[in-house]
Every structure is written in structure tokens, then in C-alpha cells.
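Re: the 134-residue chain
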Amino acid sequence: MSRTNIVVILLVAVLMGTLFSVFTTNSESVVFARAFAEPGIEFKVSGTLDTDHPVLYDPETAVAETRFHMRDKNGDVREVLLTKAKPTGLEQSESIDLYGQVIDGQFIAGEMLMKCPSKYNEQSHSLGEATASN
């Protein structure tokens, strides 16, 4: 076999491995009950910030530690430890996706995605009313 053939075979193998990992990644959102029933397994939990509890972040004590409470899709509220600095706009977020696992009875998230309100929603709504009244 020539060098070119070996390189092509290696590239195809890497691409197939990448595609396999992308399509087998668990992107299904679960509720806290399932995550707590299977500790040690990484899950995506979706919900909203529970504003009845404060967001705790003290960069002088722990820069990469944010604690807050989240309400999942079933209404279950749990404390979450995010192993990152407090994200900007957390209090204004419409929804939160946490990627983490239960360790020692606590949900620990390493990654978080937030959906924040769009600044264009109100403008679009006003524009629609103006067009409808013409």
C-alpha cells in the first residue's frame, strides 16, 4: 500500500469515529428524578431558574463554583452546583440546559446552555400589530 492510501484510510476511520460519537451522544433531556436514580451517569437536564432561592457565587472563595436552584420540566426543584463562574444573564434566562451527573447526592454540572429572551421579540410583536392595523 502506498502512503496516500494509508492516509486516506486513517482519515476515513477518524471521520467515521467522529460521526459515530456525534450520533450516539445523549442529547435527550431528562428530569432530575431520572438523573438521581442513575448517579454517575451524565445527563442533560432542562428547566428554569428557581427564583425563590438565591444564586450563590463568591469569586473570592471559589471562582469556578456557582450554586443555584433549578426547576425541571416536572416541577421538581433541586440545588445545582455549576463548576464554572456565574454566567452573565443567568437571572434573565428563559430556560437552562445542564450537562452533568449526580455525585454524592448532588447534581454537578460541568456545562450549561441558557436561552435568554430575545431583544427582538417585543419589536417583532409591535411591528406585527402595526402591520395588522393598516
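The CA atoms of residues 123 and 129 lie 10 Å apart.
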